[in-house]
Amino acid sequence: MGILQDLTEALARDTMAAMDEFGDERLHERVSKVLLDMSPTTQEAFMTAMRALLAERKGRAYLEATVKAKREGGTAPKAPFNPEAGH
Fold first, then answer.
1. What is the SS3 assignment for 78?
2. CA distance 77 to 69
3. How far, CA to CA in Å, does 42 sit from each of 8, 39, 75?
4. Statement: residue 1 has pLDDT above 70
């Protein structure tokens, strides 16, 4: 990885930890604004890392709930559906 990706990924992971510790779900948005003031390139790399981490967290929670339900003989939760998402 390059220095930009290394730095922004580390910052994103630290931001996620702080979000969890303080229950602040929007902390990454404020960190992003600080980065944007100095470097739009760094801000975009940070937001890419944040989106990946947040999506992974959501996907993992769904997977864990599905596996638990199946193992216990229950019904898996429905996956969210957003026809406007384009995927």
1. coil
2. 8
3. 7, 5, 43
4. no
> pLDDT band at 81, cuts 50/70/90?
confident
For 57-80, b/e burial (b = at least 16 CB within 10 A) is eeeeeeeeebeeeeeeeeeeeeee
The dihedral built from the CA positions of residue 51, 54, 58 and 63, taken in this order, carries a sign that is positive
Q: Tokens in use for 48? A: 């890419």
Q: Is the pTM of this model over 0.90?
A: no
Residue ranges of domains in the chain: 3-71
CB 26 within 8 A of CB 16: no
Q: What is the C-alpha to C-alpha distance for residues 77 and 87, in angstroms, rounded to an integer?
A: 20
- 53 within 8 A of 14, measured Cβ to Cβ: no
d(CA 11, CA 5) in angstroms, rounded, equals 10
